Amino acid sequence: MPPLACGSLSLILTVIVHVVSTAINAIATNQDDVPPADERDKLIELKATRNSHYLFVVGFFISMGFLVFSTPTFVIFNLLILAFIASEVFGYFSQLYYYRRGF
Fold first, then answer.
1. What is the pTM assigned to this prediction?
2. Quick one: pLDDT at residue 91?
3. Same domain, yes or no, for 46 and 28?
4. In whole angstroms, what separates CA 56 from the centre of its chain?
5. Helices (H), 1-103
6. 58, 90 contact by CB (below 8 A)
7. Do 1 and 50 reside in the same domain of the chain?
8. Cα 88 vs. chain centroid, distance in angstroms?
9. Cβ proximity of 81 and 59 under 8 Å
10. Which of 63, 65, 67 is nearest to 84 (CA)?
11. For 5-44, how does the pLDDT look when each residue is reduced to its tens digit (9 = 90+)?
12. Domain limits at 47?
């Protein structure tokens, strides 16, 4: 089997396993919905998202700045992926920080 077909098959199987396990978990725990978020939760999520987006924009402009120096496209693409991952992690840590701080 070619490598591309193996990757596609593993992706499809991962999605199926995730959907089935989520359904089984919901049935086993009798969990209907996630409780609604209050004002404080929404504010914390908003601030964490803001911080995450600021970091991504900085990473984006840095990676675009490398275009001036004729950097290969592969490197630019990897810098963009790094900026995206770093901004998401920073967003989660910001959310943890704001919850610990109580604001």
1. 0.67
2. 96
3. no
4. 12
5. 3-29, 39-65, 73-101
6. no
7. no
8. 5
9. no
10. 63
11. 666 777 888 899 999 998 888 888 876 667 787 999 999 9
12. 37-103
